[in-house]
Records
---
Amino acid sequence: MTGDGTTAAHAGERPAVPGEPHRPGPVLSTAWHLPGAPDFYGRPDNPTYRDLERALSELEGGSTVTAFASGMAAISAVLFGTLKAGDTVVIPSDGYYATRSLAADRLAAFGVTVREAPTLGPYPLEGASLVLLETPSNPGMDVCDLAAVCADAHAAGALVAVDNTTATPLGQRPLELGADFVVASDTKALSGHGDLLLGHVSTRDDGLATRVRNWRTWAGAIPGPFEAWLALRSLATLDVRLERQATNALAVAELLVGHPGVSGVRYPGLPGDPAYPVAVKQMRRFGGVLAAVLPDAAAVERMLSASRLASAVTSFGDVRTGIDRRAQWGGDDVPDGFVRISCGIEDTADLVADLTAALADNAG
Ligand SMILES: *Cc1c(COP(=O)(O)O)cnc(C)c1O
């Protein structure tokens, strides 16, 4: 058992062969000479996917991982790979908006009953066959007690999938807390450079892994080999990136909590945050994302134009600090001045000084 930094730096590595590259390039082929296993055509499998999947499995402490073209492709694989007409699914009412849209529009059309529940519960589990959780939730940063909800869901006969995008495998291991699936957008902090879209599903159940894998093959939601390779390259620095992002997020949370122009600061790693007691119990680290409320859209605008380091971006988990005023998109039930702040890996003192200056206009 090695530390996170060591595991990340070597994740997915192939055995050393003299004369072969230390880091092999992406395998871009769609066709292989036959006969031969396991590769014959590009859609079912690819050596670069396998390297990435092995790396993610190592980071998650052991699981069967299937890589997907995006986080939504991964979520779709679990929804469409497990649900059938007549089933009931419970999804977060305060989670990622595209999941809610997909469920409300497509799952309902295929005869699945969709129930929404807030991350803090209560969960309407009776008769449910699948519960999708998202913790910490995006964008509200609420945290649910995974072990407790998994136990209740299993007692009710439901499978549990956890969207682990915000935490990443180094921040939280839902499979160890009882979840049947992890789903994630690796577009965010996991790859961390704002230059690729990718997702994955993990499970420790062979039957469930086969269903997800079959969905990928049939629906064709496969990652590009180059993106898989870029993500694998990025994974090596996940531990050091997360460490700085979390340090920055805590410092920014402390700055904002004491600021007269800011309310509603949420960061699970902030002692005093309502999520803190559950977060310390189940999270291995708290990540780089926090939420806060400024008085209005104009105040957010002023902060963004005064900041030299933070830019307006709607993704998160990047090495550069980004701020998203969520109400502009219309999908979340949040006030006009609500911002999701994603801390990058800038020096903590520089970031705090920059945001302090950028917020000076908003005081009182
Ligand atoms: C971004 C995100 C997704 C969707 O991921 P894509 O890679 O954009 O498809 C799903 N869940 C959460 C929590 C996200 O933040």
Note: The radius of gyration is 21 Å.
---
Amino acid sequence: MQEEIESVMAAVRKHHALFENALPLIASENITSNTVRILLASDLSHRYAEGEVGNRFYQGCEYIDEIEEHAINYAKELFEAEHVNVKPTSGVNANIAALFALTSPGDKIMALSVHDGGHISHSRYSVPSIRDLKLKNLPFEPQEMNIDVDKMVKEIKEYKPKLILLGGSLFLFPHPILEAREAADEVNARIVYDASHVLGLIAGKKFQDPLREGADVVTSSTHKTFPGPQGAIIVCRNSLREEIDKAVFPGTVSNHHLHHVAGLAVTLVEMKHFGAEYAAQILSNAKALAQSLYDEKFDVLCEHKGFTESHQIAVDVRGYGGGDSVAMKLEKANIIINKNMLPFDKSPEEPSGIRLGVQELTRIGMKESEMREIAAFIKRVVIGGEDENRVKKEVIELRKGFQHVQYCFDGEDAYKFPAAFSF
Ligand SMILES: *Cc1c(COP(=O)(O)O)cnc(C)c1O
């Protein structure tokens, strides 16, 4: 093989080997079933299908129409939604489309700030600036790691935003949609709920139900707790259908990623069958990991509230050198996590915390007892200062028993380089 190509292939093979032997705890990642992996490499990845099902700008879309229609219908059923758009190619793309549809330049909106858990696309660095919106941050109660409900209601009535953006990236507890809805109705505001992190829990009916609680629109990526291919969906009421669809195509997407739409359709079916069981195990694993870390003397946030009601836990690691240094030490032991800002942090340069998500470990079959083992590994590296290589050997040993994707119909050798394409 060409040397230059071989060097790319070698790096990909090494990447596979790393994740086969590591503990992936990044809260925004997951792993797909083998059927989905095959679809991602299918001919669909070469094609264009601008337009809507049954009304395309390109020929050759007969079966693409069938696939997209399946994805839309399965999503409508799973989320009990009137309308679904499966075209946005990422969560940020979905947020851009939703704000394009529902706001005009100069409008006022409210969203969480990044250090309180809001996503970067909710901040002035991103979508609100693209649309020239006036952004006010939602009030946050750090002790509770949630929006301050009384202040929020008061501020919505005073500020009179056109749109309220709920949901976030550090997202431990359900957001107060019902209360926001009441206040929003008084000032005629729309509510967009960004479910990117928690869509898999919503699919399993183990988190809040944003559409029933009062969100007008739900935007979401499809690859965090929802274990599908990278991409996004927008879910809304029929009354907003036209605005949302136009804002996606031709507004902010030209060609959507058809191979990802096929993968999404399959993942929706997997979640229909296994979602409830999968989501319940995620919650139980998150609580078990949080409790074990707390027992090991880590400062896990929100002990008084049972630590978490999602897949995530947040730990204040200022006492151990801060988020950056802890994340790098753990990486040497093949424990993959990320540093994270906490509400009292002023600068994104020195985050005080780490964020852990258990959705991928759950997807490969780990349960509460493995969470306790993992907490002990983390303690040995971070508090005990033990040689990371020694812990890494035990991590690799533990991982040997967890190489298949669960909660799907076919998930053998989940981290192997796909056999059909190996060289
Ligand atoms: C991850 C995330 C996004 C962005 O999703 P991408 O698919 O990476 O573009 C948007 N919103 C929230 C709340 C997120 O956590």
Note: The chain has a mean pLDDT of 96.
